[in-house]
Specification:
The structure holds 2 protein chains of 2 kinds. Chain A is built from 6 helices and 26 strands. Chain A has helices at 2-17, 41-49, 95-103, 119-128, 240-254, 389-426; strands spanning 25-30, 53-58, 69-70, 73-74, 78-81, 107-111, 130-132, 138-141, 149-153, 169-173, 178-180, 186-191, 196-199, 205-208, 213-219, 225-229, 260-270, 286-296, 301-303, 310-315, 317-323, 325-329, 334-337, 341-342, 348-356, 364-372. Classes of the chains: A alpha+beta, B alpha+beta. Chain A: It is found in: Endoplasmic reticulum membrane; Membrane.
């Protein structure tokens, strides 16, 4: 009993103190022939301050075994991978293992440099649609003071959920670049300067201008995140005066300390509040749909404010796509509503759906499948509600009236006529 | 020997520090028969041409060429074509030929090879494409050249077919369009016919009355008047049940009502007609 209580308490404490929404156990893989971990102490100290549990492992020794899974259970929530000198990262960390880690929702920060990028990481990134430059291909910008060490304005960061600052100059050196596929799940973060070129030995140009990217991110549909950075120098303590804040925010985004939203609730009902269960919807009913969203600010959930939340009512194709209006604000939730809208005049099985996918935010989706029935035979408009019927109805009532009057007249009048006829015959 | 070394170093330094420049920059339109345009020198201070060039259906290709002295040979020569404010530029590589002390660089701007995205934005949003020349050497950043000598306006007869890549974000709103309500007769016209029917009915009654078909000589007296009243009321009752059925009362309620009314009305109606029928 006491043991269970202690376990529960410790889980609660971890949950309360952890800054990452989904866990903070992080494996740092590096090749000691290329990377000196102490050069990145500011970044790792910052992570430790935010309650990350860091396990460092060098991949230089091929005999050392690593495992990211225990059965199907992920052993780590996050991985940081520095460039490796060898062709493979480690024989136990192949591309399949990395893909499995990503498919299970794990997040990765991968760093490459012209000095090395293991094939498993390259193939993994290629699977995502990120194509880093080959080994020994460096980015240079001849319009900067030092062509292989250059500055890029932070205002060029393309995703404001990852980093939003206009004023800083980010320093890059000894950098590789990547070309990106045209996928929705890829979020370009920082393009190379337009005057830069990425070239290798013999001045072979691999990429030029702002076609290439220095930093790119990927978010899978299961919200597992991958960030690729083209330069190890970028993360080093020696550049932290320029890059420190950006690096911190990039790590926060990659490991889901920020840019995380969730749906706290959703409902739909007739406009008088009657639920579907009480009165199933029929065609042309007026209803409203509400959804609540929260955002993780690194410490707690708070209401998520946006002006682009959309609701869809679908039966194969959307019949409605409505941008929701912000409604009431509760403790951790901002509610959004469609307001009153009329259901389509088609009956069938419809999906009430909010599929909110925005670059830089976790993808959230909720749907509810409900039948919308046609009108029952007694729910169509009655004939007297149709103007045409006025003529027929007045005809019917005229006949009824005339029939009753006729009966009254017939009963009260006929005797006289017969008497007259009889008298005439007698004469 | 030492002096020669120093002189060589100074010469190299001066050479590196000298601003790069291209000369004899020229635009040609080989397939359209248009006259070429001489730009002349290109360096950091080169101003953009006042009027943009036009790519239309008759202009298949624009050739942009310039020369650089071999001793100033830059390591990076490229032409950026696109919309720099959108970070949307294509990098073009030159064809290089050497003529003695001059190196000739020639760029072919071919409408068919310019990316569709650039042509689309340039045409649909009427934004001319900016052509920027890059002439650069390493460690010579102050003297490297990034100049925009001209712009290109896209004016094609047909709209450029370009489908933007799918991106997450708000989509256009969709509002369901309901089927139109069935057409009905105008209420004024209906009212006209109702009045017509009412007039015809009253006309019929008045015709009956005026033709002498109506006298009240046969109104039953004594107890038969009760039977008469019930007979008339039963007919009105049946009409009332019919109207209620028409108005939505269920068939079962209607049948019960008919049953309840039919029994007394049959009995009393028969009685009335048997007693009074002989006089009708």
């Amino acid at each position: 009993m006491l043991r269970n209580l202690l376990i529960g308490l410790s889980v609660l404490l971890i949950t309360v103190s952890a800054r990452c929404v989904e866990g903070s156990k992080t494996l740092v893989l590096y090749d000691e022939r290329l990377t000196t971990i102490s050069d990145y102490s500011i970044m790792f100290d910052s992570m430790k301050e935010r309650d990350y549990k860091l396990d460092f492992a060098s991949v230089a020794n091929e005999t050392v075994t690593f495992s990211l899974f225990d059965g199907d259970q992920r052993l780590y929530d996050n991985i940081v991978v520095f460039p490796g000198k060898g062709k493979s990262l480690n024989k136990h960390l192949g591309v399949k293992s990395l893909l499995k880690f990503s498919k299970h929702g794990g997040s990765m920060l991968t760093i490459s440099s012209p000095d090395g990028l293991a094939d498993s990481i390259r193939l993994f990134l290629n699977q995502l649609g990120i194509y880093p430059s080959p080994k020994d291909y460096r980015l240079t910008d001849n319009f900067q003071e030092k062509s292989d060490s250059f500055k890029v304005a932070s205002s060029r960061v393309e995703n404001k959920f990852i980093y939003n600052s206009e004023k800083e100059s980010l320093v890059f050196a000894n950098s590789s670049v990547a070309l990106l596929d045209n996928r929705e799940q890829i979020f370009p973060v920082l393009a190379a300067p337009r005057t830069s070129i990425c070239s290798g030995k013999g001045d072979n140009v691999w990429a030029a201008g702002s076609q290439a990217y220095l930093i790119a991110a990927f978010q899978a549909l299961n919200n597992g995140r991958v960030t690729w950075i083209g330069s190890t120098e970028f993360l080093k303590d020696s550049n932290s005066h320029a890059n420190g804040r950006f690096v911190e925010e990039l790590v926060k985004w990659t490991f889901k300390e920020k840019g995380v939203i969730k749906i706290t609730g959703h409902d739909h009902s007739h406009i008088d509040g009657t639920s579907y269960e009480q009165a199933p919807y029929k065609i042309k009913d007026v209803i409203q749909y509400n959804i609540g969203l929260s955002q993780w600010n690194g410490e707690q959930w708070q209401p998520y404010d946006a002006d682009d939340v959309q609701f869809e009512l679908k039966m194969i194709d959307p019949y409605y796509r409505l941008t929701l209006s912000p409604g009431k604000k509760e403790n951790i939730t901002r509610w959004y509503t469609t307001g009153d809208f009329r259901l389509p005049d088609h009956h069938g099985v419809f999906t009430f759906q909010v599929d909110y996918k925005r670059p830089g935010l976790t993808f959230v989706s909720v749907s509810d499948v409900k039948a919308i029935r046609h009108l029952a035979h007694d729910e169509y408009p009655r004939s007297w509600e149709i103007t045409n019927a006025g003529v027929y109805l007045s005809g019917i009532f005229a006949v009824i009236f005339a029939w009753i009057v006729f009966v009254i007249f017939f009963v009260s009048t006929s005797k006289v006529n017969r008497k007259v006829n009889v008298e005439k015959k007698n004469k | 020997m030492r002096l020669a070394g120093v002189l060589f170093a100074v010469c190299t330094l001066v050479s590196n520090c000298l601003a790069l420049q291209a000369r004899d920059a020229h635009l040609a339109f080989p397939n359209s028969g248009k006259r070429g345009i001489m730009i002349g020198k290109i360096d950091s201070n080169t101003q953009e041409m006042q009027k943009p060039l036009v790519i239309d259906n008759s202009t298949g290709e624009i050739d942009f060429s310039f020369a650089i002295e071999a001793r100033d040979r830059p390591s990076q020569v490229a032409l950026l074509l696109g919309l720099p404010e959108r970070d949307l530029e294509v990098v073009m590589e030159p064809k290089v030929t050497e003529h003695g002390e001059l190196i000739m660089y020639k760029f072919k701007i071919d409408q068919s090879t310019v990316p569709k995205a650039l042509l689309y934005f340039a045409q649909a949003e009427e934004q001319p494409l900016t052509a920027s020349v890059i002439l650069a050497k390493p460690e010579n950043h102050k003297n490297n050249v990034l100049a925009s000598p001209f712009k290109i306006r896209v004016d094609l007869d047909e709209a450029v077919e370009y489908r933007r890549p799918a991106r997450y974000g708000a989509k256009p709103e969709i509002i369901h369009e309901f089927n139109p309500e069935p057409k009905t007769a105008p209420w004024k016209l209906v009212q006209f016919f109702i009045i017509l029917i009412a007039l015809a009915t009253f006309g019929l009654v008045i015709a009956w009355m005026s033709s002498g078909a109506l006298n009240f000589n046969s109104v039953p007296t004594n107890f038969n008047v009760v039977y008469l009243l019930f007979f008339i009321l039963s007919i009105i009752g049946f009409e009332y049940i019919f109207v209620r059925y028409y108005a939505g009362t269920s068939i079962f309620d209607t049948l019960f009502a008919v049953l309840y009314l039919a029994i007394p009305s049959l009995w009393l109606g028969t009685k009335f007609l048997r007693n009074f029928g002989e006089t009708i």
